[in-house]
Write a structure and sequence with these properties.
three-stranded antiparallel beta sheet, globular, TIM Barrel, single chain, about 20% strand
Protein backbone atom coordinates (compact mmCIF):
# COMPACT_ATOMS: atom_id res chain seq x y z
CA UNK A 1 0.00 0.00 0.00
CA UNK A 2 1.22 3.58 -0.64
CA UNK A 3 2.52 5.52 2.33
CA UNK A 4 0.22 8.12 3.86
CA UNK A 5 1.93 11.53 3.77
CA UNK A 6 1.49 14.70 5.83
CA UNK A 7 -0.45 17.31 3.82
CA UNK A 8 -0.40 21.10 4.28
CA UNK A 9 -2.18 22.44 7.38
CA UNK A 10 -4.72 25.27 7.72
CA UNK A 11 -6.78 26.75 10.56
CA UNK A 12 -10.53 27.35 10.43
CA UNK A 13 -12.17 29.50 13.15
CA UNK A 14 -15.97 29.66 13.36
CA UNK A 15 -17.93 32.69 14.60
CA UNK A 16 -21.56 31.59 14.92
CA UNK A 17 -23.51 34.84 15.32
CA UNK A 18 -25.29 36.98 12.71
CA UNK A 19 -27.37 40.13 12.94
CA UNK A 20 -30.14 38.09 11.32
CA UNK A 21 -30.15 34.54 9.97
CA UNK A 22 -30.94 34.40 6.26
CA UNK A 23 -33.89 32.17 5.22
CA UNK A 24 -31.72 30.09 2.85
CA UNK A 25 -28.88 29.49 5.33
CA UNK A 26 -28.22 26.04 6.80
CA UNK A 27 -24.85 26.97 8.30
CA UNK A 28 -24.18 26.76 12.02
CA UNK A 29 -25.27 30.35 12.66
CA UNK A 30 -27.58 32.07 15.15
CA UNK A 31 -29.32 35.43 15.28
CA UNK A 32 -27.71 37.64 17.89
CA UNK A 33 -30.44 38.48 20.40
CA UNK A 34 -28.41 40.22 23.08
CA UNK A 35 -24.93 41.51 23.65
CA UNK A 36 -22.18 39.77 21.69
CA UNK A 37 -20.12 37.67 24.16
CA UNK A 38 -16.95 38.87 22.48
CA UNK A 39 -14.43 38.49 25.28
CA UNK A 40 -15.87 35.21 26.58
CA UNK A 41 -15.81 33.69 23.08
CA UNK A 42 -12.31 34.98 22.39
CA UNK A 43 -11.12 33.35 25.62
CA UNK A 44 -12.76 30.05 24.67
CA UNK A 45 -11.21 30.13 21.18
CA UNK A 46 -7.81 30.74 22.71
CA UNK A 47 -8.20 27.73 25.04
CA UNK A 48 -9.46 25.65 22.12
CA UNK A 49 -6.34 26.52 20.14
CA UNK A 50 -4.07 25.62 23.07
CA UNK A 51 -5.86 22.28 23.57
CA UNK A 52 -5.49 21.25 19.91
CA UNK A 53 -2.00 22.62 19.24
CA UNK A 54 -0.11 19.53 20.50
CA UNK A 55 -1.74 17.45 17.73
CA UNK A 56 0.07 19.51 15.08
CA UNK A 57 3.34 20.29 16.85
CA UNK A 58 6.08 21.07 14.35
CA UNK A 59 3.67 21.55 11.43
CA UNK A 60 3.31 24.95 9.75
CA UNK A 61 -0.08 26.59 9.27
CA UNK A 62 -0.29 28.09 5.78
CA UNK A 63 -3.69 29.81 5.99
CA UNK A 64 -6.40 30.91 8.40
CA UNK A 65 -10.09 31.33 7.56
CA UNK A 66 -12.35 33.28 9.91
CA UNK A 67 -15.83 32.14 8.92
CA UNK A 68 -19.36 32.28 10.18
CA UNK A 69 -21.88 33.51 10.93
CA UNK A 70 -20.50 37.00 10.68
CA UNK A 71 -16.91 37.24 11.98
CA UNK A 72 -16.89 40.99 11.23
CA UNK A 73 -19.20 41.46 14.23
CA UNK A 74 -16.00 40.96 16.24
CA UNK A 75 -13.76 43.98 16.60
CA UNK A 76 -10.37 44.29 14.86
CA UNK A 77 -8.80 44.22 18.31
CA UNK A 78 -10.36 40.82 19.09
CA UNK A 79 -9.34 39.43 15.71
CA UNK A 80 -5.79 40.66 16.34
CA UNK A 81 -5.72 38.99 19.78
CA UNK A 82 -6.97 35.73 18.26
CA UNK A 83 -4.30 35.77 15.55
CA UNK A 84 -1.64 36.58 18.15
CA UNK A 85 -2.80 33.55 20.16
CA UNK A 86 -2.58 31.40 17.04
CA UNK A 87 0.99 32.55 16.48
CA UNK A 88 1.86 31.70 20.09
CA UNK A 89 0.34 28.23 19.98
CA UNK A 90 1.15 27.23 16.39
CA UNK A 91 3.93 27.54 13.86
CA UNK A 92 2.66 29.80 11.08
CA UNK A 93 4.00 30.57 7.61
CA UNK A 94 5.72 33.90 7.04
CA UNK A 95 3.31 34.61 4.18
CA UNK A 96 0.23 33.43 6.11
CA UNK A 97 -3.05 33.99 4.26
CA UNK A 98 -5.75 35.22 6.70
CA UNK A 99 -9.27 35.54 5.28
CA UNK A 100 -12.09 37.30 7.13
CA UNK A 101 -15.71 36.82 6.08
CA UNK A 102 -17.61 40.11 6.26
CA UNK A 103 -21.20 41.24 5.76
CA UNK A 104 -21.41 44.63 4.00
CA UNK A 105 -24.21 45.57 6.39
CA UNK A 106 -22.27 44.69 9.55
CA UNK A 107 -18.97 46.49 9.10
CA UNK A 108 -18.05 49.89 10.53
CA UNK A 109 -16.52 52.59 8.34
CA UNK A 110 -12.75 52.41 8.38
CA UNK A 111 -12.71 48.97 10.00
CA UNK A 112 -10.98 47.21 7.09
CA UNK A 113 -7.83 49.24 7.64
CA UNK A 114 -7.88 48.11 11.28
CA UNK A 115 -8.50 44.48 10.34
CA UNK A 116 -5.51 44.62 8.02
CA UNK A 117 -3.37 46.03 10.84
CA UNK A 118 -4.61 43.14 13.03
CA UNK A 119 -3.27 40.59 10.53
CA UNK A 120 -6.08 40.02 8.02
CA UNK A 121 -4.69 39.73 4.48
CA UNK A 122 -7.86 38.87 2.55
CA UNK A 123 -11.60 39.52 2.91
CA UNK A 124 -14.59 37.55 1.60
CA UNK A 125 -17.51 39.94 1.21
CA UNK A 126 -21.04 38.54 1.12
CA UNK A 127 -22.50 40.63 -1.71
CA UNK A 128 -24.92 37.92 -2.97
CA UNK A 129 -26.65 40.32 -5.41
CA UNK A 130 -26.64 43.95 -6.55
CA UNK A 131 -30.40 44.03 -6.99
CA UNK A 132 -32.22 45.38 -3.94
CA UNK A 133 -35.31 43.26 -4.60
CA UNK A 134 -33.09 40.18 -4.82
CA UNK A 135 -31.35 41.05 -1.56
CA UNK A 136 -34.69 41.57 0.16
CA UNK A 137 -35.93 38.20 -1.10
CA UNK A 138 -32.81 36.61 0.39
CA UNK A 139 -33.34 38.32 3.74
CA UNK A 140 -30.02 40.16 3.53
CA UNK A 141 -29.50 43.16 5.83
CA UNK A 142 -27.29 45.16 3.43
CA UNK A 143 -27.91 47.22 0.30
CA UNK A 144 -26.01 47.28 -3.02
CA UNK A 145 -24.65 50.70 -2.02
CA UNK A 146 -23.15 49.22 1.16
CA UNK A 147 -21.38 46.53 -0.89
CA UNK A 148 -19.93 49.17 -3.20
CA UNK A 149 -18.78 51.25 -0.23
CA UNK A 150 -17.18 48.21 1.42
CA UNK A 151 -15.29 47.40 -1.78
CA UNK A 152 -14.01 50.97 -1.99
CA UNK A 153 -12.80 50.74 1.60
CA UNK A 154 -11.10 47.40 0.93
CA UNK A 155 -9.11 48.95 -1.91
CA UNK A 156 -8.28 51.98 0.24
CA UNK A 157 -7.08 49.67 3.03
CA UNK A 158 -4.76 47.78 0.67
CA UNK A 159 -6.92 44.64 0.80
CA UNK A 160 -7.52 44.51 -2.94
CA UNK A 161 -7.27 40.69 -3.02
CA UNK A 162 -10.84 40.32 -1.82
CA UNK A 163 -13.57 37.87 -2.78
CA UNK A 164 -17.16 38.73 -3.63
CA UNK A 165 -19.80 36.07 -2.95
CA UNK A 166 -22.58 36.11 -5.55
CA UNK A 167 -25.64 33.89 -5.83
CA UNK A 168 -27.74 33.16 -8.89
CA UNK A 169 -31.11 31.52 -9.66
CA UNK A 170 -32.67 33.83 -7.08
CA UNK A 171 -36.44 34.21 -6.65
CA UNK A 172 -37.81 35.92 -9.76
CA UNK A 173 -34.36 36.31 -11.35
CA UNK A 174 -33.83 35.97 -15.11
CA UNK A 175 -30.63 35.53 -17.10
CA UNK A 176 -30.22 39.25 -17.77
CA UNK A 177 -30.45 40.03 -14.06
CA UNK A 178 -27.86 37.38 -13.20
CA UNK A 179 -25.49 38.86 -15.80
CA UNK A 180 -26.04 42.36 -14.38
CA UNK A 181 -24.99 41.10 -10.95
CA UNK A 182 -21.69 39.80 -12.36
CA UNK A 183 -21.12 43.02 -14.31
CA UNK A 184 -21.69 45.06 -11.14
CA UNK A 185 -19.33 42.80 -9.20
CA UNK A 186 -16.58 43.13 -11.81
CA UNK A 187 -16.87 46.92 -11.65
CA UNK A 188 -15.60 46.73 -8.05
CA UNK A 189 -12.33 45.06 -9.16
CA UNK A 190 -12.23 42.04 -6.83
CA UNK A 191 -9.42 39.51 -7.15
CA UNK A 192 -11.75 36.56 -6.67
CA UNK A 193 -15.43 35.82 -7.21
CA UNK A 194 -17.51 32.95 -5.83
CA UNK A 195 -20.67 32.19 -7.80
CA UNK A 196 -23.22 29.86 -6.21
CA UNK A 197 -26.67 28.70 -7.16
CA UNK A 198 -29.36 29.24 -4.54
CA UNK A 199 -30.54 25.84 -3.35
CA UNK A 200 -33.25 24.92 -0.86
CA UNK A 201 -31.54 23.24 2.08
CA UNK A 202 -33.41 21.03 4.58
CA UNK A 203 -34.19 22.75 7.85
CA UNK A 204 -34.18 26.28 6.43
CA UNK A 205 -37.07 28.73 6.18
CA UNK A 206 -36.89 28.55 2.38
CA UNK A 207 -37.24 24.76 2.52
CA UNK A 208 -40.37 25.10 4.66
CA UNK A 209 -41.82 27.89 2.50
CA UNK A 210 -40.11 27.68 -0.90
CA UNK A 211 -39.96 30.86 -2.95
CA UNK A 212 -40.54 30.70 -6.73
CA UNK A 213 -37.15 29.88 -8.24
CA UNK A 214 -35.99 29.75 -11.89
CA UNK A 215 -36.20 26.32 -13.50
CA UNK A 216 -33.16 24.16 -14.24
CA UNK A 217 -32.78 25.37 -17.82
CA UNK A 218 -32.81 29.02 -16.75
CA UNK A 219 -30.32 28.32 -13.94
CA UNK A 220 -28.00 26.54 -16.40
CA UNK A 221 -28.23 29.49 -18.80
CA UNK A 222 -27.33 31.85 -15.95
CA UNK A 223 -24.29 29.77 -15.04
CA UNK A 224 -23.06 29.56 -18.64
CA UNK A 225 -23.61 33.25 -19.34
CA UNK A 226 -21.95 34.40 -16.12
CA UNK A 227 -18.99 32.04 -16.58
CA UNK A 228 -18.43 33.43 -20.07
CA UNK A 229 -18.59 37.00 -18.76
CA UNK A 230 -16.07 36.21 -16.04
CA UNK A 231 -13.71 34.52 -18.52
CA UNK A 232 -13.82 37.61 -20.74
CA UNK A 233 -12.82 39.70 -17.72
CA UNK A 234 -9.78 37.52 -17.03
CA UNK A 235 -11.23 35.36 -14.25
CA UNK A 236 -10.33 31.68 -14.59
CA UNK A 237 -12.67 29.07 -13.16
CA UNK A 238 -10.42 26.95 -10.97
CA UNK A 239 -13.10 25.28 -8.83
CA UNK A 240 -16.74 24.42 -9.47
CA UNK A 241 -17.97 27.70 -7.92
CA UNK A 242 -14.79 29.82 -7.78
CA UNK A 243 -13.21 32.22 -10.28
CA UNK A 244 -10.01 34.19 -9.80
CA UNK A 245 -7.56 36.49 -11.52
CA UNK A 246 -4.07 35.06 -11.98
CA UNK A 247 -2.42 34.44 -8.61
CA UNK A 248 -5.56 35.31 -6.64
CA UNK A 249 -6.92 31.81 -5.92
CA UNK A 250 -7.90 31.23 -2.30
CA UNK A 251 -5.02 29.28 -0.77
CA UNK A 252 -7.17 28.15 2.14
CA UNK A 253 -9.90 26.66 -0.04
CA UNK A 254 -7.35 25.01 -2.33
CA UNK A 255 -6.09 23.18 0.75
CA UNK A 256 -9.59 21.79 1.33
CA UNK A 257 -10.03 20.72 -2.29
CA UNK A 258 -6.67 18.92 -2.32
CA UNK A 259 -7.65 16.98 0.83
CA UNK A 260 -5.32 18.94 3.08
CA UNK A 261 -5.55 19.12 6.87
CA UNK A 262 -7.12 21.81 9.04
CA UNK A 263 -7.72 22.50 12.68
CA UNK A 264 -11.33 23.43 13.45
CA UNK A 265 -11.79 25.93 16.29
CA UNK A 266 -15.05 27.48 17.48
CA UNK A 267 -18.67 26.42 17.96
CA UNK A 268 -19.55 23.61 15.54
CA UNK A 269 -16.20 23.81 13.77
CA UNK A 270 -14.96 20.71 11.96
CA UNK A 271 -11.35 19.67 11.43
CA UNK A 272 -9.34 17.02 9.60
CA UNK A 273 -5.92 15.76 10.68
CA UNK A 274 -3.60 13.16 9.16
CA UNK A 275 -1.33 10.96 11.31
CA UNK A 276 0.97 9.03 8.93
CA UNK A 277 2.77 7.16 11.72
CA UNK A 278 -0.56 5.64 12.83
CA UNK A 279 -1.91 5.41 9.25
CA UNK A 280 -4.98 7.38 10.36
CA UNK A 281 -7.01 10.31 9.10
CA UNK A 282 -9.21 11.81 11.81
CA UNK A 283 -12.25 14.08 11.61
CA UNK A 284 -12.94 16.37 14.57
CA UNK A 285 -16.05 18.34 15.50
CA UNK A 286 -16.84 20.86 18.22
CA UNK A 287 -20.12 21.32 20.06
CA UNK A 288 -22.46 23.25 17.74
CA UNK A 289 -24.54 25.40 20.09
CA UNK A 290 -22.56 28.49 21.17
CA UNK A 291 -23.63 28.40 24.84
CA UNK A 292 -22.69 24.74 25.16
CA UNK A 293 -19.37 25.39 23.42
CA UNK A 294 -18.61 28.32 25.75
CA UNK A 295 -19.40 26.23 28.82
CA UNK A 296 -17.65 23.04 27.71
CA UNK A 297 -14.31 21.74 28.86
CA UNK A 298 -11.48 22.18 26.39
CA UNK A 299 -11.36 18.45 25.73
CA UNK A 300 -15.02 18.33 24.51
CA UNK A 301 -13.80 17.84 20.93
CA UNK A 302 -15.26 14.73 19.25
CA UNK A 303 -12.89 12.67 17.09
CA UNK A 304 -13.67 10.05 14.46
CA UNK A 305 -11.19 7.96 12.46
CA UNK A 306 -12.26 7.83 8.80
CA UNK A 307 -12.56 4.17 7.74
CA UNK A 308 -10.48 3.25 4.68
CA UNK A 309 -13.62 2.34 2.73
CA UNK A 310 -14.85 5.96 2.99
CA UNK A 311 -11.60 7.61 1.91
CA UNK A 312 -12.08 7.37 -1.90
CA UNK A 313 -15.43 9.16 -1.62
CA UNK A 314 -14.08 11.80 0.77
CA UNK A 315 -11.05 12.48 -1.44
CA UNK A 316 -13.14 12.72 -4.62
CA UNK A 317 -15.71 14.89 -2.89
CA UNK A 318 -12.91 17.44 -2.61
CA UNK A 319 -10.57 16.92 -5.53
CA UNK A 320 -13.19 16.63 -8.28
CA UNK A 321 -14.34 20.18 -7.51
CA UNK A 322 -11.09 21.45 -9.05
CA UNK A 323 -11.24 22.12 -12.79
CA UNK A 324 -7.63 20.94 -13.13
CA UNK A 325 -8.36 17.78 -11.14
CA UNK A 326 -5.61 15.89 -9.32
CA UNK A 327 -2.77 13.50 -9.96
CA UNK A 328 -2.34 9.87 -8.95
CA UNK A 329 0.50 10.69 -6.57
CA UNK A 330 -1.71 13.07 -4.60
CA UNK A 331 -4.45 10.46 -4.28
CA UNK A 332 -1.98 7.91 -2.93
CA UNK A 333 -0.25 10.30 -0.52
CA UNK A 334 -3.39 11.92 0.86
CA UNK A 335 -5.34 8.65 1.35
CA UNK A 336 -2.68 5.94 1.70
CA UNK A 337 -4.66 3.90 -0.86
CA UNK A 338 -3.66 2.23 -4.09
CA UNK A 339 -5.08 3.64 -7.34
CA UNK A 340 -6.80 0.30 -7.90
CA UNK A 341 -9.25 1.25 -5.12
CA UNK A 342 -10.89 3.73 -7.48
CA UNK A 343 -10.17 2.14 -10.86
CA UNK A 344 -13.66 0.71 -11.48
CA UNK A 345 -15.70 3.88 -10.70
CA UNK A 346 -13.15 6.01 -12.56
CA UNK A 347 -13.53 3.92 -15.72
CA UNK A 348 -17.32 4.04 -15.40
CA UNK A 349 -17.27 7.82 -15.10
CA UNK A 350 -14.90 8.13 -18.08
CA UNK A 351 -17.24 6.02 -20.21
CA UNK A 352 -20.12 8.36 -19.27
CA UNK A 353 -18.07 11.42 -20.19
CA UNK A 354 -18.04 12.75 -16.61
CA UNK A 355 -14.29 12.41 -15.94
CA UNK A 356 -11.37 13.01 -18.32
CA UNK A 357 -7.82 11.71 -18.06
CA UNK A 358 -4.87 14.09 -17.74
CA UNK A 359 -1.19 13.17 -18.26
CA UNK A 360 -0.83 12.51 -14.51
CA UNK A 361 -4.34 11.90 -13.18
CA UNK A 362 -7.96 12.91 -13.61
CA UNK A 363 -10.16 15.98 -13.89
CA UNK A 364 -13.90 16.49 -14.13
CA UNK A 365 -15.19 17.13 -17.66
CA UNK A 366 -17.47 20.10 -18.35
CA UNK A 367 -20.38 17.67 -18.09
CA UNK A 368 -18.92 16.26 -14.87
CA UNK A 369 -18.68 19.72 -13.27
CA UNK A 370 -22.34 20.31 -14.06
CA UNK A 371 -23.43 16.94 -12.69
CA UNK A 372 -20.87 16.51 -9.94
CA UNK A 373 -23.28 14.73 -7.61
CA UNK A 374 -23.70 12.01 -10.24
CA UNK A 375 -19.93 11.62 -10.48
CA UNK A 376 -19.52 11.37 -6.72
CA UNK A 377 -22.22 8.73 -6.32
CA UNK A 378 -19.92 6.27 -8.06
CA UNK A 379 -17.32 6.61 -5.29
CA UNK A 380 -19.65 6.16 -2.33
CA UNK A 381 -18.96 3.27 0.00
CA UNK A 382 -21.64 0.62 0.02
CA UNK A 383 -24.61 2.05 1.85
CA UNK A 384 -28.34 1.97 1.15
CA UNK A 385 -28.83 5.74 0.99
CA UNK A 386 -26.57 8.72 0.53
CA UNK A 387 -27.99 10.41 3.61
CA UNK A 388 -26.92 7.49 5.78
CA UNK A 389 -23.25 8.34 5.29
CA UNK A 390 -21.50 9.93 8.25
CA UNK A 391 -21.45 13.72 8.17
CA UNK A 392 -18.56 14.99 6.07
CA UNK A 393 -16.70 18.25 6.46
CA UNK A 394 -14.84 19.39 3.41
CA UNK A 395 -15.88 22.57 1.82
CA UNK A 396 -18.49 25.11 1.07
CA UNK A 397 -21.96 23.94 1.94
CA UNK A 398 -25.57 24.90 1.76
CA UNK A 399 -26.70 27.58 -0.67
CA UNK A 400 -23.11 28.29 -1.67
CA UNK A 401 -22.41 24.76 -2.85
CA UNK A 402 -24.36 24.57 -6.07
CA UNK A 403 -26.36 21.77 -4.46
CA UNK A 404 -23.44 19.49 -3.59
CA UNK A 405 -24.09 17.05 -0.82
CA UNK A 406 -21.70 17.87 1.99
CA UNK A 407 -21.08 20.10 4.97
CA UNK A 408 -18.12 22.22 5.97
CA UNK A 409 -15.96 23.14 8.95
CA UNK A 410 -18.60 25.16 10.69
CA UNK A 411 -21.40 23.75 8.68
CA UNK A 412 -19.38 25.67 6.11
CA UNK A 413 -15.93 25.95 4.64
CA UNK A 414 -14.50 28.93 3.05
CA UNK A 415 -16.41 30.90 0.47
Amino acid sequence: MPALTTPPLALYVHFPWCVRKCPYCDFNSYTLTGELPEQAYLGRLTRDLAAQAPQVAGREVTSVFLGGGTPSLFSPRSIGELLAAARRQLSVAADLEVTLEANPGAIERGAFREYRAAGVTRVSLGAQSFDQAGLSALGRIHSPAETRRAAEELHAAGLDNFNLDLMYALPGQDVAAALRDVTEALALSPGHLSHYQLTLEPGTLFAARPPPLPDEDAAAAMLDGCAALLAQAGFARYEVSAYARAGRQCRHNLNYWTFGDYLGVGAGAHGKLTFPQRARIVRTVQLREPRRYLAAADEALVRRVIPARELPFEFMLNALRLTAGFDAQMFAGRTGLDWREIAAPVEAAIRRGLIARTPTGLRPSELGLRFLNDVLLGFMPETPKFTELPALSIGVSGPRSGGLLFTGPGGVIGE
